Amino acid sequence: MLPSRPTSEAPRTVAPEAAWPAVERSFIIPHLRWYICGLLFFATTINYIDRQVLSLLKPLLEKDLGWSEATYGWIVFAFQLSYAIMMPLAGRAVDYLGTRLGYLVCISLWSLAAAAHSLATGAFGFGVARFALGFGESANFPAALKTVSDWFPKRERALATGIFNSGANVGALVTPPAVAFLVAHFGWRSAFIATGLCGFVWGAIWFWFYRDPASHPNLSRAELNMIRSDDEGAPEREEQVPYSEVLGSRATWAYLIGKFLTDPVWWFYLFWLPGFLSRTYGLDLANLSGPLIIIYTASMVGSIGGGWISSALIKRHWSVNRARKTAMLICALAVTAAIFTYKATDLWVVVTLISIAAAAHQGWSANIYNLPVDVFPRKAVASVIGLGGMGGAVGGLLASPAIGYWLDWSGGAYGVLFVFAGSLYLVALGIIHLLVPNIERARA
Predict the structure, then answer these.
(1) Residue 164: partners with Cβ closer than 8 Å, 6 or more residues away
(2) Structural element, H or E, at residue 258
(3) Cβ–Cβ contacts within 10 Å for residue 244, how many?
(4) Residue 21 lies inside a defined structural domain of this protein
(5) pLDDT digits (tens, 9 = 90+) for 352-375
(6) Which ranges constitute the DSSP H helices of 282-375?
C-alpha cells in the first residue's frame, strides 16, 4: 500500500495567494474546467468513432473479403493486444510527458493508424492497422482521467468523468449514419480516412488551448482555489511515484481486476453488436442505425447519470467510499438486463434490454474510473489508469477469439454471451469491496 501520512503531521492549508502563480491573465473564462471537460468529451468521441468503423463494416467486409467470425475475432485481438501492451506504458508516458504533450502525441498516432485502415487489402493488413490503432488509443483514458484529477475537485470528478466518457456513446451514435453515407457515396475506404482526419483537428485545438490549471491564462483565481480545495490537509507528492508503490497497493489490483472483468463486456457491445443485429435480424448497414442510436443514446444518459449519482451523494456529505460503491451497485444490478436477451426474440425488446445494460455499464465506468483518482496522488493517476486499462484489454483480447470461435461453432448462439455480459459486474464489485473496503486518499 502507499504509506499514509503520519497522524502527527499538521494539516497543510493552501494560501489563496500562494496558489496563484505569476501568470498574465488578460481574459478570464468562467467555469473553464467544464470547457476542458468538453475537450475530453470530443477526444473520447473521436476515439470511439475510430474504433467502431470496422465493426460497422464487418458484414460488408466479410462478404467482400471472405472473413469468418474467427478471422474477425483475430483482427479485434490485434487491437486489444496492442492496447494491453501499451496501456501501462502509455499511462507512464503521460505522467512523464505531461497531459498537454502526451495527449497530442497519442491522438496523432491513433488518427494516423485510423486512416491507414484504408490501405488494407486483407485480414493481415487490417490486423496491422488495428494493432497500430490500439498503440495510440491506449493513452486516451489515462490522459483524460489525469486531466480530470488536475482540473476537478473530488466532489465533481465522477460527473466530469461521466460527461467525457459519454463521448464513447456519442461516437458510437454518430458513426453508423456517417459511415453509411460515406460508404454509399465514396466507398468503404473513405470512412477510415474521414474519421482519421478528425483527430488531427482536435489535436491542434488541444495543443493551442490546454494548460495546467496553475498556468492557464484564462482561469480565475476563485476557480483555481476551488479546484485545489481537496489539497487542504493532503499534500501532494511532486516526484514520480515508483511502480513498486503503485503495484503494492491493493487499490491498484482492485481497479485492474474490476476492469479485467467488465471491460470485455463493452468491447463485446462495441465490436460484435452490429454483427449480432445483422445476423439475427437481417439488418443491413443502413437499417442498423436505428437500434444502435437507441442503445448508445441510452448509454450516454447512463454515463452522465452514473457519475451524477455518486457526485450528488458526495455533495450530500456521504463518504466517497459509500457514494461510489452505492452508484456501482445500482449499475451492477441494472446491467443484469442483458441476461434476459437469452430468451427474447423481438428486435425492440432486445434493443431495450441491451440499452439498459449498456447504460448501466457506462454508469459503472464513470465510477470505477475514479477509484485511482480518489486514492492515488496526481503523479501516479495515469500510471494506475494504464495498468487498469491493460487489465481490461487483456480480458478483451482473451474474449475476442473465443467469441469468434464460439459463434462459428454454435452457428451464431449469442444468447450465452449476453448471460455472461450481465453477470460479471456483481462479481467485480464484490472483489473491489474485498480488496478496498474503504476508498480513501493514500498520502505520502
Answers:
(1) 37, 40, 41, 43, 44, 144, 148
(2) helix 250-281
(3) 7
(4) no
(5) 999 999 999 989 988 898 888 788
(6) 289-315, 320-334, 347-368, 370-375
Q: pLDDT per residue over 164-194, tens digit each?
A: 888 877 887 788 888 888 988 888 889 999 9
- As to burial, measured by CB atoms within 10 angstroms (0-12 exposed, 13-18 middle, 19+ buried), residue 24 is exposed
Q: Which residues make Cβ contacts (< 8 Å) with residue 214, sequence separation at least 6?
A: 19, 21, 23, 224
Question: 378 with 2: CB under 8 angstroms?
Answer: no
Angle ∠(13,325,225) on CA atoms, nearest 5: 25
* 85, containing H or E segment: helix 69-97
The CATH number that applies at residue 97 is 1.20.1250.20
pTM value is 0.69
Pick the closest to residue 249 from 41, 432, 1 (CA basis).
1
* Residue 106 and residue 143 in contact, taking contact as beta carbons nearer than 8 Å: yes
Structural domain of 90: 33-214+250-435
Q: Structurally, how many domains does the chain consist of?
A: 1
Residue 5 lies in a domain: no
Burial of 79 by CB count in 10 Å (0-12 exposed, 13-18 middle, 19+ buried)?
A: buried
Residue ranges of the chain whose pLDDT lies below 50: 1-20, 233-235, 443-444
- Report the alpha-carbon angle 200-206-211, nearest 5: 155
DSSP letters along 383-404, please? Answer: HHHHHHHHHHHHHHHHHHHHHH
Domain contains 11: no
| Under 8 Å between Cβ of 337 and 431 | no
Q: What is the three-class DSSP state of 298? A: helix
Cα distances (angstroms) measured from residue 422 to each of 259, 339, 354, 439: 15, 5, 10, 25
Number of H helices, E strands in the chain: 17, 0
Q: Is residue 396 part of a domain?
A: yes
Question: Side chain identity at 169, as an amino acid letter?
Answer: N
